[in-house]
Amino acid sequence: MSKQFQFKLVLLGESAVGKSSLVLRFVKDQFDDYRESTIGAAFLTQTVTLEDQTTVKFEIWDTAGQERYKSLAPMYYRNANCAVVVYDITQSASLDKARNWVRELQRQADPSIVIALCGNKSDLSARRQVTEEEAKKYADEEGLMWAETSAKTGEGVTEIFTAIAKKLPLTALPSRSGAARGTTAARSGVDLNKQSTAQGQNEPCNC
After folding, report:
1. What is the value of pTM for the model shown?
2. Domains (range + CATH), the chain
């Protein structure tokens, strides 16, 4: 039987960088030119099947980028297994905001969280203000995954979520309580094949 895991993923970034459009493209393979700003956060799910037939289900929290909702963000990234921090390649200020989100995650989120830095709107490269070199250098310095995407064309969208899915089980660490029991904790994801077993008996897959 193939292994099935469930992970909590949160999207963070300034308003209008395309977080909701990324999720819509990933979940429904759709794009809407006129999307209203997210209020609070939106919740969606999507599944990725890896090459070894391991299934990773993402529980996705798409957070609002407006400043007035920033104080709510910890509610969504708390206990998250992974985060996608999105910036707009045509707006250099959005990368500065992304850096702030990364710092906040590094300070307050789970230490083993997987963070991916995502430069969206690659279809607008003629208006680029953030170079690939600048963003990748920052990602390398901070130990982040990095990619550019276009929610409009779909370029790179599935790839970045698949890359996260591949990395997650390998980076999940047992909690203190899990280590004490000799088992891995829920940080390694919920194994959907073992829902009926006692909590804390989940094992990470070796993707």
Report:
1. 0.80
2. 4-194 (3.40.50.300)
